[in-house]
Design goal:
The complex is a heterodimer of chains A (175) and B (395).
Chain A: H1 3-21, H2 24-40, H3 51-74, H4 93-112, H5 115-125, H6 131-138, H7 142-158, E1 166-167, H8 169-174
Helix pairs in contact in A: 1-2, 1-3, 2-3, 3-6, 5-7, 6-7
Chain B: E1 15-16, H1 18-30, H2 38-48, H3 55-82, H4 105-108, H5 115-123, E2 162-172, H6 177-190, E3 194-201, E4 208-216, H7 220-228, E5 232-242, H8 244-270, H9 274-306, E6 307-316, H10 333-383
Parallel strand pairs in B: 2-6
Antiparallel strand pairs in B: 2-5, 3-4, 4-6
Helix pairs in contact in B: 3-9, 3-10, 5-9, 8-9
Classes of the chains: A mainly alpha (175), B alpha+beta (395).
């Protein structure tokens, strides 16, 4: 694993940690800690396709360590405090506000998901890992990963903030 | 829909499509701008971090550590169970107890405290009680062994130890049984002895009585002569058993073992590793137990040889002489068997207690090795980031 690969992985890993922890500072610390660990033990990193799940395994463990530490310290989860979302510079102000509102709704919905559902959901649909790779990252069987992904999507569908995105197969079949 | 009403199979529950979830998460992630120098900060920090240990060196270190742990456990196990010192080369090996010549009379006369007492304070070892001693046994002139020197001098043959016992049966005049028994008692006291026991049967037409006295061995013959003059002698028997060699052997063994224990204690002060300390301490405890047993045996021999025993039976004429069993002589029949059974039980318990210490030590060492290996394994996994989330997070 070289510097270029580390630099290329950093943005996605950082945002993955943000979605898991829902806290920018905590995510930055966790990712830095994880990347340092990966760098120090890069000889143990599997080559080729095995690199990504191994990397995200370290990132996930670093995030969960912070969650446990925060919970034991304050009695509440990391990221329970209101998010300070920065406006994106690109689009127009009204689009930025809409995106911020949507992002806020998604983050709030993610906050209601338990960690064992939130982590595979983010790894699958944001970091782009396959179910097999997620199984390696969280040290579970692929079948368990599949089940958790399905549960996570079903729970998000029940969140009223995301009701506009919900698809009802029964309704579609009736139509 | 069926006649019973609408049914909703699991596959038709409301859900979020995969494409929608991906879109939503991307929107949420975009609200977290990536720190411009985030990757650079990580790379800079990695350069300051200590260099990573190559995998092959880590594996080699792990293999060497595991081999060292197993070897140490084996060495310790052999040292404890084999009973022979197997200390690592770094420490001075404890010398086995060597046979030394018996001590001189001058050393016997040393007025130090009982070596067993002072040494028990050092090692905390306790020995079981020695063999039963005769009643009222006192150490007449028995020298108390002190801290033994490294080399023991040759024995003095002029100081022999003899266990003398005698049985005399007297016929007293009518009505004189009690007077004769009193006369025997006075004679014993004049010779510097004591009365070990007496019994009389003065009722009936044929009174009789027995008395057992113990006098210093040097005055035993004089007592026997005096007793023989107190009445008509029906029977008399005197036995003498020379226990000089046995006593000298016991003394020599005590001195040899005491010297060995001193050496072990000096080695113990220099031992550093836990394994060495345990092995040497075990040797010290073993030697101390043997010393205690030998000292007990020496006490018994001393008591038996310092005071001789004379049993006197006094009867009137026409009364068959009663058999006198002098205390101090070996008991026969059921009493002897019970005594042997008691001694055997005590010996068995001694053996069990001695063996349990070694077994417990081996178990403790194995538990320590297992705990260290488990800790090293978990630490290694944690450093590689391979720890599993806690149980409450798993479903």
């Amino acid at each position: 694993m070289d510097d270029e690969e580390l630099a290329a992985d950093y943005p996605v890993a950082y945002r993955t940690a943000c979605l898991v922890l829902r806290d920018r500072d905590g995510a930055q610390d966790a990712v830095q800690e994880a990347f340092l660990r990966v760098w120090r033990f890069r000889d143990a990193v599997p080559p080729g396709d095995g690199r990504r799940p191994w990397l995200y395994r370290v990132v996930v463990n670093a995030c969960l360590s912070r969650v446990r530490a925060e919970r034991s310290r304050t009695g509440r989860d990391v990221g329970d405090a209101p998010l300070a979302l920065l406006a994106d510079r690109g689009p127009a102000p009204e689009q930025a506000a809409e995106r911020s509102q949507l992002a806020g709704d998604v983050m709030a919905a993610l906050a209601d998901l338990p960690e064992h559902l939130r982590v595979p959901l983010v790894l699958r649909f944001y970091a782009g890992l396959s179910e097999k790779e997620i199984a390696v990252a969280i040290d579970r069987r692929p079948g368990t990963v599949k089940s958790r992904l399905s549960d996570a999507r079903a729970r998000l569908a029940l969140d009223p903030r995301l009701s506009a995105w919900v698809s009802d197969p029964a309704l579609e079949a009736a139509q | 829909m069926t006649a019973d009403g609408p049914t909703t199979p699991a596959s038709t529950l409301p859900t979020l499509g995969e494409h929608d979830v991906r879109l939503l998460l991307r929107e949420a992630a975009a609200s977290f701008p990536v720190p411009r120098t985030g990757a650079d900060d990580v790379l800079a920090a990695s350069r300051q971090a200590p260099p990573a240990v190559p995998l092959h060196r880590r594996r080699w270190a792990q293999a060497v550590t595991a081999a060292a742990g197993v070897s140490a456990a084996l060495v310790l196990g052999v040292a404890v169970l084999g009973g022979s010192p197997a200390a690592p080369p770094a420490a001075a090996p404890p010398a086995p107890p060597a046979a030394a010549p018996p001590a001189s009379p001058a050393e016997k006369a040393l007025g130090d405290a009982e070596s067993g007492t002072s040494d028990r304070q050092l090692t905390g070892a306790r020995s079981l009680a020695p063999a039963a001693q005769p009643p009222d046994a006192t150490n007449f002139g028995v020298a108390k062994g002190g801290a033994a020197p490294v080399a023991a001098p040759a024995p003095d043959a002029s100081l022999g130890r003899v266990v003398k016992t005698g049985e005399v049966s007297l016929i007293a005049e009518d009505g004189a049984v009690s007077r004769t028994l009193d006369a025997v008692q006075r004679a014993a006291r004049r010779q510097g002895g004591i009365v070990a026991g007496s019994a009389t049967d003065e009722a009936g037409a044929t009174p009789s009585g027995t008395i057992t006295v113990r006098v210093p061995v040097t005055t035993f013959e004089a007592l026997v002569l005096e007793v023989r003059g107190l009445g008509a002698v029906r029977t008399a028997s005197i036995t003498a058993k020379d226990v000089t060699g046995q006593y000298a052997d016991t003394e020599a063994q005590i001195r040899t073992l005491t010297a060995a224990r001193e050496r072990f204690l000096r080695i113990l002060t220099r031992a550093d590793a836990v394994g060495e300390i345990l092995a040497v301490q075990q040797r010290v405890d073993d030697v101390t137990g043997r010393i205690d047993r030998l000292q007990g045996a020496r006490k018994v021999l001393a008591a038996q040889s310092d005071l001789s025993t004379l049993a006197v039976t006094v009867t009137q004429a026409d009364d068959p002489a009663a058999a006198v069993v002098a205390p101090g002589t070996p008991e026969a029949g059921l009493s002897g068997a019970l005594g042997d059974a008691r001694d055997g039980f005590v010996s068995g318990v001694e053996g069990l207690i001695a063996g349990s210490g070694r077994a417990l030590l081996v178990l403790l060492c194995l538990a320590a090795v297992a705990a260290a290996a488990r800790l090293a394994w978990r630490t290694g996994r944690r450093r590689l980031g391979l720890t599993r989330p806690p149980v409450h997070q798993r479903r």
